[in-house]
Structure formats: structure tokens, C-alpha cells
TrEMBL record:
The protein's name: Peptidase C14
Residue ranges occupied by any Peptidase C14 caspase domain in the UniProt entry: 18-268
Lineage, top ranks: Bacteria, Bacillati, Actinomycetota, Actinomycetes, Kitasatosporales
InterPro entries per record: Metacaspase, Pept_C14_caspase
UniProt-recorded Gene Ontology molecular function terms: cysteine-type endopeptidase activity
Gene Ontology CC annotations of this record: cytoplasm
Superkingdom assignment: Bacteria
Organism field: Streptomyces antioxidans
GO terms of biological process kind: proteolysis
Length: 284
């Protein structure tokens, strides 16, 4: 009988010493992780964590995913969620064909580069399913311009405020100035991470990965009072388990309820598994 493991990461703050004095305060990421862990537990998953703020270090997240890879076999499933800031570092191993930037999860003590995440996925056995929800964004440039390009009405709908400073605090992206300062200071460490890893588009990933992210690469994810906008909308569509459709139908239902400037994105990577996206979410 297949088994399901779940890992849930949520950061309402990071260590200022690791990010040039920036604490990255958010309001709802920890609750996102707690709520996702609750759904997973109710569905019969073996839940790890949730890993909240100080507990969500790069070492802990890496060790947790490596342990999961050691337990799961063909037919099993990992449900992985992240809620927090997204960041970017320059792409050195040429695996990004567009903006030449690698995306990151902004963990408590350092950024986890997407190359590291894909390398971890490569440790899972053939036939394992990985469902990833990432409620974060990655473009600090877009985040900085957002109050200028959206109307007061649009800002109020997404962030419950139209005040530019408050909107800035409710965007799940590391500010561009902080990204630049952190990379300048810790460049050797982040360059070494990329230079010792195979480009992700060439990495052999035998697991099937289905990722639903909170927004497109050129958009931002909004934080909230209780949940992030993406996570809160997903919970409404799920309706405590009354939702009866597939992963793709869940994605469509969320997109239909989101504002046009934040469009959740579904993508499949790793080993082809066309049946995966047609299965019911939270099904082990």
C-alpha cells in the first residue's frame, strides 16, 4: 500500500544577521504551513513539522527532504509546501534560459537555491510522486514597482490596503536592495552552491514532480492576515474536502478566484506521469 509523507515550511521572519539586517517579516506564512499540515494529516499523510521560521534552516530542510527520499519508493507520494519570501541569485551554471537568475526559497539562515531543490528531488526513487505548493514570489523588481502599476482598488483587493509601504511589507519577495547586498556579501557561498551542482534541466529526476506556485515568474504573491492569498484561496476551493476534482481542476478553480495580477502556475517536471495531474489532491 502506498505511503504519503508531507513536509511544510513557513517563515514569518528570517535571521537579520543572514540578510544584511533585513528580518523579512510576514504575517501569514506560518499559518499557511500549519493549515497545510492539518490537511495532510487529515488525509493520512505522515507529517513532518511544520518547520516554522527559526526551525526552517537550510540544513534542516535539506535533511528532512533527504530523509523523505530515503523512505519513499515507487507509488509513494511526498506533499511539500513552502510559504515565505522568494529571492533570486545570478545563474552561473546556465540552467535558466530566460532571465539568467536562479530562484530561491528565503530560509531562516540562508537562501536555498532552486538547483539545490532539484538535486534533492533527484534523490527520490523512480515512480515517486512529489506535489509541491510554493506560496512565494521571486521578482524583487516587480515587487518594487507594484504600488505604481496597480490602482488603489486593485491593491486593496489583494493586500487589504493601498498604502505603498504597507503593500511592500505584504509582498512575499525579498527586496531587490537586500538581494543585491546579500549576494555581494555571500557571493562565494552562493557561487559554490551552483558550481558544484549539475544544471537542473540536465539533472536526472526519476520522481514525477507536480508544482503549483502562487504566481507567475513576473508576478508577486500577496501575504495576508490569516493566510497568503494563494493558500487561502486554495483552502476555499478545497472546501474542507468537499472538492472532488483533480490537481488540474484544483488549479483551475484557484486561478478563477484569483486577481488577474496573481495567477498561480502549474508545471510538471521530472519523469513523465500524465496520470498524476488527473488524480484527486491529497490522495495517497
Amino acid at each position: 500500500m502506498p505511503i504519503g509523507l508531507s513536509v511544510h515550511i513557513g517563515l514569518n521572519q528570517v535571521d537579520p544577521a543572514a540578510y544584511d539586517g533585513w528580518s523579512g517579516e510576514l504575517g501569514a506564512c506560518e499559518q499557511d504551513a500549519v493549515d497545510m499540515a492539518g490537511l495532510a494529516d487529515a488525509a493520512g499523510f505522515d507529517v513532518t513539522g511544520p518547520l516554522l521560521s527559526r526551525a526552517a534552516t537550510a540544513e534542516k530542510v535539506t535533511a528532512t527532504l533527504e530523509a523523505a527520499a530515503g523512505r519513499l519508493a515507487e507509488g509513494d507520494i511526498l506533499f511539500l509546501t513552502y510559504a515565505g519570501h522568494g529571492g533570486q541569485v545570478p545563474d552561473l551554471n546556465h540552467d535558466e534560459t530566460g532571465d539568467r537568475l536562479d530562484e530561491t526559497w528565503v530560509l531562516y539562515d540562508r537562501q536555498l537555491v532552486d538547483d539545490e531543490l532539484f538535486e534533492l528531488f533527484g534523490k527520490f526513487a523512480k515512480g515517486v510522486r512529489i506535489w509541491l505548493l510554493s506560496d512565494s514570489c521571486h521578482s524583487g523588481t516587480v515587487a518594487r514597482l507594484l504600488p505604481e502599476v496597480l490602482s488603489h482598488q486593485e491593491l486593496d483587493r489583494r493586500f487589504s490596503t493601498a498604502d505603498p509601504q504597507e503593500v511592500g511589507r505584504r509582498i512575499r519577495a525579498m527586496p531587490q536592495s537586500v538581494q543585491s547586498a546579500v549576494y555581494r556579501r555571500d557571493r562565494d557561498a552562493y557561487d559554490r552552491i551552483q558550481n558544484t551542482r549539475t544544471a537542473k534541466d540536465l539533472a536526472r529526476i526519476d520522481a514525477s514532480v507536480l508544482r503549483i506556485s502562487g504566481c507567475q515568474d513576473n508576478q508577486t504573491s500577496a501575504d495576508g492576515i490569516v493566510n497568503g492569498l494563494f493558500t487561502g484561496t486554495l483552502l476555499k476551493v478545497w472546501r474542507g474536502g468537499a472538492f472532488a476534482g483533480s490537481y488540474r481542476a484544483l488549479h483551475r478553480g484557484v486561478v478563477q478566484r484569483m486577481p488577474p495580477d496573481q495567477t498561480p502556475h502549474l508545471v510538471q517536471t521530472g519523469a513523465p506521469n500524465s496520470a498524476f495531474a488527473r488524480q484527486r489532491p491529497f490522495t495517497i
